[in-house]
Write a structure and sequence with these properties.
Layout lengths: L8 H20 L7 H16 L5 E6 L15 E2 L6 E10 L1 H5 L6 E8 L10 E7 L14 H12 L7 E5 L5 H9 L3 E5 L3 H9 L1 H4 L3 E7 H14 L2 E7 L3 H9 L8 E3 H4 L5 E6 L10 E3 L2 E10 L4 E10 L2
Parallel strand pairs: 1-3, 6-7, 6-8
Antiparallel strand pairs: 1-2, 3-4, 4-11, 5-8, 5-9, 9-10, 11-13, 12-13, 13-14
Family: Belongs to the FBPase class 2 family.
Cofactor: Mn(2+)
Keywords: Carbohydrate metabolism, Hydrolase, Manganese, Metal-binding
Amino acid sequence: MTPPKDFNDRMLSLGLARVSEAAAHASARLIGRGDEKAADQAAVNAMRDQLNMLDIKGVVVIGEGERDEAPMLYIGEEVGTGNGPEVDIALDPLEGTTLTAKDMPNALTVIAMAPRGTLLHAPDVYMEKLAIGPGYDKDVVSLDMAPAERVRALANARGVKDSDITVCILERPRHEDLIAEVRSTGAAIRLITDGDVAGVIHCAEAELTGIDMYMGSGGAPEGVLAASALKCMGGQMWGKLLFRNEDEKGRAKKAGINDLDRIYSRDELVTGDVIFAATGVTNGSIVAGVKREPGYLTTETILMRSKTGSVRRMIYRNPVK
């Protein structure tokens, strides 16, 4: 899909970085304070204020929840000055509220922007996810394969033993069988407690992170954010919505999704060009966390554009009173 001429991703990307930086600054004062809701709300407030300074006609398609669940940055909320391109916004003001409250690694503020109608309006349900990094033939692994088959297929594509593969999985009781099957191949597993957007991003930088593949179920909205990052960095991803009851199926249909069994590829989750920004709140393997110095807060942001495949790391040293 060709982006509209007024979607100037080059200029908008810097504004997007400011949005994620502001959210990280706001939530930084609540690191280790044990209050997840307060940390999340601080990030939401700051992100919304910054978004409303951008010259865009933005609509939140991945946000904090339905309008009656979230006072700000709810799904369908309009953001920006109203002067500029029509865009979709996907965001997680604080990916890792628990990580922030407990001062644990890999808490991020995350946001993506794309031309209107190009981000999947994923309902707030679970999504089965599978991701690998760049450099592989198309569909070398798939969601139709059993987990052990995926490990063997990826190892064969890399020309290594199964035991040389490392898989990232969210540590949850629902993943016990998945973990057991992956371990039966001899592959290593890196378990994460929260933050599966970061888990998927790790696949795109396997040489740095040591992670070859991401598997497991997590939030569908986070799946769209992860696909946005992977579209910029390179790599393959698939997602399938999972429903626990009729209410969740109804949410999907309300979002315009009628094929409830569809497996989405990365480019079906994000159909057009996208820009993506993430700022570290606590120290992590992707970006450093907020650093406090006398009179300053310093953050690191990763800023990416799918159009060019550029990945920029930015250090922002901001005076504080």
